[in-house]
Amino acid sequence: MPEIRLVKAVSEYNGSYIIEGRSFQNAGRVSNEIKKILKARGISETVVRKVSIVVFEAEINIISYARIGVIKFEVFPDSIIIEAKDEGQGIADIELALKEGYSTADAEVCELGFGAGMGLSNIGKFSDFFEIQSDVGKGTYLKSIININGKQ
Ligand SMILES: Nc1ncnc2c1ncn2[C@@H]1O[C@H](COP(=O)(O)OP(=O)(O)OP(=O)(O)O)[C@@H](O)[C@H]1O
Ligand SMILES: [Mg+2]
Question: Which of 22, 69, 111, 112 has the fewest CB atoms within 10 Å of its CB?
Fold first, then answer.
């Protein structure tokens, strides 16, 4: 029998932020905060930039389309895991929502310069792993993993 080695993954740092839907005055606050924390921990510019983009797009989507949500991030020695979970309208057709240019943003969201339909595809582009699940009328969950020593 091959020997199985169990390694418990312990995060070096983690944080969670609650985000209220339609709180446009807070747009970008969570990604800014996480950016500062990662920089202070000596994480490379390239990784910080990718995490900031992923968190920014996720927080704007919660503000734009959900009632309330939480963004959690965890720093491991070799990766950063970002999870965004919200309660809200959910996404009926995920494949369509992932397409560049597809958007259901309302006038208020568009006036603030969002609603180009690029957020989810950018999250996918900057993630080494990306998963999204949604229940219409309930909410949306997304998970992104960014490798620290991955191809940069
Ligand atoms: N958390 C969410 N809850 C409900 N619907 C969402 C959520 N996130 C995205 N969507 C839906 O998926 C669509 C595409 O999202 P995406 O972030 O790619 O673009 P956008 O938000 O419309 O524009 P951009 O991100 O470029 O400002 C949204 O217009 C919305 O219909
Ligand atoms: Mg978006």
Answer: 111
